[in-house]
Design goal:
Blueprint: H1 2-12, H2 21-36, H3 51-71, H4 82-90
Helix pairs in contact: 1-3
């Protein structure tokens, strides 16, 4: 969730796309409980993401962020050359 928003923020020039730190920490904690709360706490237990839940949530967040980007004048998807253009502009 946060990685997707951070990437869109960087590529889509959406400075206000990221939520407040407290909200990010709350959502991260809830996600950890949801995704890995049922796993045993052994160091050998490494596969800790339910892929179907992750994929469903990813698609839902992507649609919300597309609407937000469009409303901000930054329609998605960002063209592949955007990262090159942004780097050139920063120099």
């Amino acid at each position: 969730w946060l990685a997707v928003r951070a990437l869109k923020c960087a590529l889509g020039n959406m400075k206000d796309a990221l939520p407040a730190k407290e909200e990010m920490e709350r959502v991260t904690g809830a996600d950890e409980h949801r995704f890995i709360g049922h796993f045993h706490g052994s160091p050998r237990h490494r596969m800790r993401v339910d892929f179907n839940i992750y994929r469903h949530d990813f698609k839902k967040e992507w649609k919300k962020d597309e609407r937000r980007a469009k409303a901000a004048g930054n329609p998605l998807p960002v063209p592949p050359w955007a990262s090159f253009v942004l780097r050139q502009a920063a120099e």
